[in-house]
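yo, Putrescine oxidase is done. seq:
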Amino acid sequence: MSAEQDRPPHDVVVVGAGIGGLAAAEALHRSGVDVLVLEARPRTGGRLLGTAEGLDLGATWCWDGEPRVLGLVDRLGLATYAQHLAGDTVVEDQRGVQRYPGNLMDVASHRYVGGAGALTDALAATLPAQRLLLDHPVHSVARGAGGVLEVASRGRTWHARHVVLAVPPAVAADTVRLPADLPDDLVRVAAETPVWMGQVAKVVAVYDEPFWRHDGLAGAAASRVGPLQEIHDMSGPEGRPAALFGFAPSALMGPDADRQVRAQLARLFGARAADPRRVTIQDWSRERWTSPTTAAAGAPDHSLFGHPVFQEPTLEGRLHWASTETSPAFAGHVEGALVAAERTVDRILAAAS
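structure:
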């Protein structure tokens, strides 16, 4: 028997070191709970990921009316700045490119100084190093003796009184062998719940200056031609670093994507847009720990977000769900992940009281 198998069970094992998992782990650790986080990737953050300049390749914004994330920013000593709004919008269709007065794409919102990954970096830093293990994909969660759960990863097994699945439900259903006695409806809904951004590519083009602003443009665009379907100004505070970013369906990100993106940006914003310092394409559908191999084709059924089956723990109150997709409010946002984490922490602390 290994030393790990011989030790008393952890109070909680959290699967996934994205924003939901780390927020839950930090709150539990702060409450004196013995918590261990296992993360499949060699990094924390999940879909909170940035370029070397701190420009977001995943989660980007938060908004007034999202008290948890704004409160977390304050508590962690981080900062936000306003999304750039001033200027006109360009729209592209089969007839060409038209310019419309005002910003028709963006609303008042906040961006994270240093990128959204600053949130998960700060949360991870609150945990003892031995309580956060990277490169540890969880292969199975099983019932063990005495009512505890067994969590297996990299040839080791951890025992826990509670397990928190802080990964998209469909990823858990695809990559983790779950207990056979889970309710059939839960397993089905988990497998069918779409992954937010799971079939989306995010493209960031970095420039020496935000030249489109000098031309009276907001950096906001919509296109029916593509490959990018919507585009926004992603420049940092005071316009530095200067950047545009756009979303595209992953299916449109072929081997010629870089050239197509540069050509489209030139059509929308002029010749200078064709020559960015760098183009970064983050295709989330190619991320094993974001997009399940079983991802369904066609339009995702977002009505499954926040489904009732995720709201209460199963296995006698020991198995919990804490990704943004499981939240009945703000699903897909960082705020939604924090709602799910808060619900999970409340259930675990209540069970211990």
